[in-house]
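Below is how a single chain appears once it has passed through the pipeline. First comes the sequence as given, then the structure the pipeline wrote out for it. We keep one example in the README because the format questions we get most often are answered faster by looking than by reading.
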Amino acid sequence: MGLKQVWGCRVLVAMWAIMFCFLAVSSAQADFKKTKIAVLDFSLQGQGYETTDMGAIVAEWFITALVKEGRFDVVERALLQKIVAEQKLGITGVVDESSAAQLGRVLGVKIIISGSVLKLQNVLEVNARIIDVETGSIIAAENVKSSSSTSLQSLIVQMSQIIIKNFPLEGYIVKRSGKNVTIDLGRLAGVREGMEFITFKEGNIIKHPRTGEVLDVEQIKTGKIKISSVRGKISTAVISKEEKGSKIKYGQLVKSVAGELKPPAKQAYHVAESYTQPYVAPSRSSRRKAKNDPNVLLGKLKTENMRDKVYVAKVVSRHGSIPVVFDAIEQVLLKGYATKTRNKNHVDAMAWLCKALGASGKAKYKGTLTTVSRKAPSRKLRGYAKKALNSM
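Resulting structure:
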């Protein structure tokens, strides 16, 4: 074989190798598919609802929360209702094995969320169930209570976050450089800055002792990483912890976690109990304690009075509060920061809301503060947003 033929073979081999790598990467990226979910209208039990559409409203709140998460393909409610009518399923919050399988085949969904809203005197109770379409079995269930319909939406958003824990994002480490790693999950998969992932390496193969069937592969925890930047199909993370005797490496598995892993039912119960207690006008001796009552704070955030918003921001900046109050502050800020006005009270209120989000110390609000620091028409407000970012 001549020199030209040798070089020709080497070039051909190199080209095949590059093509193989490209196809392998493309295949890996194409493997990720969002979990397809359908949310049915919740059935109503009891009497005295403010509206007969409460079951549909609860379903809409769940859909909105899941879509915002970014990792789910949620069936539009209008399409769902059309399919249910055409198939004559008559499904409203109650799904048996047969109807779940039938609906799943038509819509191509893997998971159905259904449930009921129960009203007894002045208490509203929402029961949500996650149903596996393939088996028709309930794989998880959550429950929250509220003393008024105005607080129900916030509780459902929190319950949806607990439900989301049942669907962790899973991927691989594709690069490590010092204390930073890159994973094969990005914005398209629903990854956001501040999210945490547990890292694993594969251990022994687990086989059945009699049949020899491979049941699973042992997963050995190697550490934890925290997302610092997100792109379309990849994300960069900082290594926050490595297990003793282990090292986070290229090719290891990653699985998302949502804060501390607490039992979902227990967490949902404490959130509901701590938030839904009816507000009673405090006596002088208990006035200081009442300042941080979430019902009071959320009520003041909903008013048009800018002083009320400043009051809430000052209270939570100094004393903290439950997550739903910080989420409400973020929504008010997003709604009002872009308003072009010479009203000093409005700008001051928005500035204090920025300070409150900074005091929370939660990375989830960095995106909002960054937006305000760059796009707010008021230079003063942009400055306060930057200070809040720096304080986190």
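The first strand starts at residue 35 and ends at 39.

See the next section for the split statistics.
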